[in-house]
Amino acid sequence: MLWINFITKGKFFHHFQPIVNLENRTIEGFEALFRSPLFSTVEEAYQLAKKKRRLYELDVHSVQKAVRTFAESGQKDKGQKLFLNIYPSTLLHAGLVSVIKDLIGTYPFLAGQLVFEMVENERIDDLSGLQDVLKLIRQAGIRIAVDDFGKGPDNMNRTIEIDADYIKLDRYFSIDLRTSEKKQAYVAFLIRFCEKFHTKLIFEGLETAKDIHYIREMGIHYAQGYALGRPHLLGKAVRGHA
Predict the structure, then answer these.
(1) What is the DSSP string of 132-180?
(2) Which stretch of DSSP H or E encloses residue 85?
(3) Nearest to residue 204, comparing CAs of 179, 229, 182, 180?
(4) What are the residue boundaries of the structural domains of the chain, listed by start?
(5) Cα(159)–Cα(126) distance, rounded to whole angstroms?
(6) Of 38, 48, 181, 239, which is least surrounded by CB within 10 A?
(7) Percentage of the chain with pLDDT > 90?
(8) Which CATH number applies to 2-224?
């Protein structure tokens, strides 16, 4: 019964956290963050979905609901991007292309404003098939981001092969960045990589104004974190520290 209510009755919603352009302090977009009163953590909900072999169903329902919420809030009219987490296995599912076509038919703004964030905690066994799907998705005007870069075991491989439009750097790099020469060197390498291949690098996990100032000095242009805005229901923004 828990599972039936969870999916069919939509017992979940989304908070939205801003992703900020640090150069002009405008909002590049919002990441939709899955929430449910039936589970203590997001991971618990998705682990149940995997166990029940209904991960694709949950992923698609989450995408559809986040898009509807974003559209109905009026946020779409500002031209900002909507970042949605999605599993590689969902991208590879035979039914996804039809779902995307239906969504764009209902919400034309998605062609140009939707960004799929590929989650890192799922192994990709069919990279060639994924590349083919991503080509179709890009033709529809949807962009691709690699989420939590630096956390998963094959992040570098998949990032090179799928040619991501955005790389979201895992919050691990924001911890003690100002005192860690190794982290600074790795981030500097990624900045050069992204500049060369016209990829937008997004720094996650910023919690203080000092953090923001430091990464701006390093050459990071986009960021996300409590210092820039907390996750919130659209229309009820919670401002950060800076």
Answers:
(1) HHHHHHHHTT-EEEEEEETTSTTHHHHHHHHT-SEEEE-GGGGTTGGG-
(2) strand 81-86
(3) 229
(4) 2-224
(5) 14
(6) 181
(7) 69
(8) 3.20.20.450
